[in-house]
Amino acid sequence: MELFDTHCHLDVDAFASDRDRVLADARAVGVRHMLVPAIQRGNWMTLWALWARDEALHPAIGLHPMLLQAHQDADIPALEAFVSTHRPVAIGEIGLDYTVKSLNWERQQKLLESQLAIAERHRLPVVLHVRKAHDPMLQTLKRYILPGGICHAFNGSEQQGEQYREMGFRLGFGGMLTYPNARHLHALAGHLPLDAIVLETDAPDMSGAAHRYQRNSPAYLPEVLEMLAALRPEGAAVIADQTTRNAFRALRLERSHVGA
To answer: 118 Cβ partners below 8 Å, 6+ apart?
Structure first.
């Protein structure tokens, strides 16, 4: 089986000492491709250097809402310039996070819209971070013409999931799905159409039940697949194949890259 980890921060310092080992472990269990989304301007060139070494580490470039205080006004024109010269596969990780009260909602909205405008101009998918803000996010997305993308760590309602799906987005499920008490996620993953779902880890964060309080890794993605297979009528092989295809379609990557 070939798997695609659609959200893995392999560029961050948590992997600096053993990144090659982590990659080897992931490839050994079938994780052939990874989307690596940048979170701030300082990551962009590091991320690009990783992609230059390994074309299966697909780069997304963006400014994360939780790092709002670290971003500067100049980062937006710098983002557009970088996108123009380097052409990432997506704009991300971008979004709205209403769980942290110190993050000004208006500033988040402005940052989000600036980046959505860049995605629209360059016809790129987007990788969304959304926490307790799905309705304002959906309303915002309607104002842009986008080729879809991925809503990372989806935890909204089925109705919200359908709205994202209608706009060309896939919904990411990761390690949180593996916890026995994650009933809402279990219901979502079991009821949503399989063509709406992609797999992710969010490594080094959001470790699954078997690795609680440990650094997460793309090598743990098969555990998400196993849990998804337990919640759905399709077998693991079918789910692996379809979610990998979903990832390539969401990111508008060539079908030939799937390897099948």
So the answer is: 76, 79, 80, 83, 91, 124
